[in-house]
Amino acid sequence: MLELPRLQVGSPIPFRCDFDVHRGRQKDLILSSPESFAGLPAILEPTTNALVSTLADFLTRKLPHRRAARLAGLLLFTGVDANTAAWREDLARRLASEQQSDGGWVDCEDTAWCSHVLGALGGDPENRRRGVAWVAAERSGDGWGYCRRDVPCIPITAQVHLLLPELRDHRSETWLREVWARDLSGPVRLSYKAAWYLLARGGAAEDTDLAKETVEYLIADQRADGGWGPWRDHPAASDCLSTGIAMWALVQQPHDAVTTEALVRAARWCEVHRLANGLFPTHYIEEGSAWVHLGWAAALRSLEPSTGQG
After folding, report:
1. CA 42 → CA 48, 87, 107, 265, 290, distances in Å?
2. 100, 138, 231, 297: which has the fewest Cβ within 10 Å?
3. How many other CB atoms are there within 10 angstroms of residue 239's CB atom?
4. What's the CA gap between 189 and 186, in Å, rounded?
5. Whether 162 contacts 200, CB under 8 Å
6. Rounded distance, CA 310 to CA 308, Å?
7. Angle of helix 125-137 relative to helix 108-120, nearest 10 degrees?
8. 10 Å Cβ neighbour count for 115?
C-alpha cells in the first residue's frame, strides 16, 4: 500500500494513488492546492488527500453528481477552502448543467446539498435561488421528506435546516423538536437522528433541556470502542456515518469533562480504524470516510486547547 506524501505549501501537486475503489487501478490525480487545507489538523492529512483525490476522480469519470456534491459539501464543512480548491469550477459547472428546468436535482436531500455547494463555490446565485425554491415547494407538511409525497423525517428536515437556513421556520423547528422528543422517549433511539437534531436546532433557547438530554443520550450510547452505531446494542459494528455525525454534533454543544472524554475516545476510534490509504472501511467509502473526516476534524479542533492534539 502506498504511503501518502505530506503536503507542502506551493502549487498543486500530482498525486499517485492506489485506492480507486471502483476500478482497482492506479491513476494520477491533481489535488487542490495545499493552501486549501490550511488549518486542518496534520493527522487528517492522509484522509484529506484521499478524499480530494477521490472527488477529482469522480469529476473526471462523471460519476453521479449527488456523490460528488455530498463529498464536496462535507469537505467544505470540514474546512477545505473553496476559493483555492482545484475542483471548484468543474464541480460548479457540473452541478449547474444537471439542474432540472424546475430548479431541482433529484429529491429534497440531493437538491439541498447541490444548492448549498453551488452557493459555497460561488456559482450563479440564480441556480441556488431556484434550488431553494424547489425544496420549499416540495415541503411535506411541517417538515421535509424526499419529496412532497413522502412523509417528513428528521434527517432530511435537519439537512434542509442546516444547508438552506432560509427555509427553517417556527413550524419546521417545532415539528423537529416534537418528533425527536417522541423518538428519544421511545424504545428505539437512533444515534444519527439525535445528531441531526442537535445540528439542526441552531441553539434554540426553548429546547435547551431537550438538547441537554440528547447530548447525555449520545454520550451514553457511545460504544466501548469509542464509535457509534445506529444504537449501542445494534448488532452491526460502529460505523462511519453514526460516528462522524455524532462527533460533529457533540462539538457544537457546551462541553464538560464527560463530553471531552467522549470526543477523545471517538478520535481514537478514527485513528484505529483508518486504512493505510487514508479512507475508512465502509460501503460508500468516500461518503463514510468524509463523515469521519468531518467529525474527527471538529473533535480535534475542540480538544486542542485541553489536550494538545492536532
Report:
1. 10, 22, 36, 19, 16
2. 100
3. 23
4. 7
5. yes
6. 7
7. 160
8. 29
- If you search the block for the grid coordinates 468516500, which residue do you land on? 286
CB 40 within 8 A of CB 84: no
* pLDDT value at residue 35: 38
- pLDDT value for 234: 87
Q: Is residue 293 a contact partner of residue 76, using CB atoms and an 8 Å limit?
A: no
pLDDT in tens, 130-181: 999 999 999 999 999 999 999 999 999 999 999 999 999 999 999 999 999 9
Q: How far apart are CA 139 and CA 149, in angstroms?
A: 9
Task: Find out whether 154 and 180 touch, Cβ atoms under 8 Å.
Answer: yes
> How far is the CA of 78 from the CAs of 100, 234, 297, in angstroms?
29, 28, 7
Rounded to 5 degrees, what are φ and ψ at 17?
A: -125, 155
Return the axis-axis angle of helices 154-163 and 170-184, rounded to nearest 10°: 140
Compute the C-alpha angle 228/191/221, nearest 5°.
Answer: 60
**Cα–Cα distance, 26 to 229 (Å, whole number):** 32
At residue 37, the pLDDT reads 52
Write down the mean pLDDT value for the chain: 85
CA dist list (Å): 112 to 124, 273, 307: 16, 30, 36
Cell numbers at 214, concatenated: 440528547
Q: Which three cell numbers stand for residue 271?
A: 485513528
Inform me whether the pLDDT recorded for 94 exceeds 70. yes
d(CA 39, CA 33): 14
Is 87 in contact with 32 (CB distance < 8 Å)? yes
